[in-house]
Amino acid sequence: MSDTPADTSKRTWLIASGCVGAVGAGFVAVPFVSSFQPSERAKAAGAAVEVDISALKPGEKMTVEWRGKPVWIVRRTPEQVEALAKIDSQLADPNSNRTAYPTPEYAKNEWRSIKKEFWVGVGICTHLGCSPSDKFQAGPQASLPDDWNGGFLCPCHGSTFDLAGRVFKNKPAPDNLEVPQHMYLSDTRLVIGEDKNSKA
Ligand code: FES
């Protein structure tokens, strides 16, 4: 039997996330799913995921699974936050106005996030679904411009994204990386897949 597109994209990101030293914390729903009845399992698969981000250090990324997708949580350094303000003219949609992957209102800002320090985004390229690689190191390097400030490079066709998941101009990916609904329960507890609006 051939893979469905969902199977393929999941395998792609699983392989990719194994290479970047992802922190595996935060899988609240997933480990308990096997003992559920089918309808409960389906519910758990779509459920919001609660994540402990207390161990995430500046400049690091962790990955959690939500609805079969890799969700990245990046803790940006002050320098990385500052750099986001300087590159609007190089971006295809700096203010996240495109609607294929609508950005929640609370992330429609320069940081595409609730807190400047933390960015939450789906790690699937908006071109054909590959998993972009971390390129957090600033400066000249292979396949990237010399004034690179840190971000992500999709190895499939070369799309580049900044550390807010905003896609650079003239790249195959048509949209910024998706920002899922999310909210903070405290400084160290984050919920992905639900926000204050969905609670209202
Ligand atoms: S899938 Fe990312 S650039 Fe094509």
UniProtKB/TrEMBL annotation:
- Domain of life per record: Bacteria
Keywords in alphabetical order: 2Fe-2S, Cell membrane, Disulfide bond, Electron transport, Iron, Iron-sulfur, Membrane, Metal-binding, Translocase, Transmembrane, Transmembrane helix, Transport
Q: Indicate how the chain sits in the lipid bilayer.
A: Single-pass membrane protein
Q: Which CDD domains match?
A: Rieske_cytochrome_bc1 (cd03470)
Task: Outline the extent of the Rieske domain.
Answer: 111-191
The note on the cofactor says: Binds 1 [2Fe-2S] cluster per subunit.
Which subcellular locations apply to this protein? Cell membrane
On assembly, the entry states: The main subunits of complex b-c1 are: cytochrome b, cytochrome c1 and the Rieske protein.
The protein here is known as Ubiquinol-cytochrome c reductase iron-sulfur subunit
Source organism per entry reads Caenimonas koreensis DSM 17982
The gene coding this protein: petA
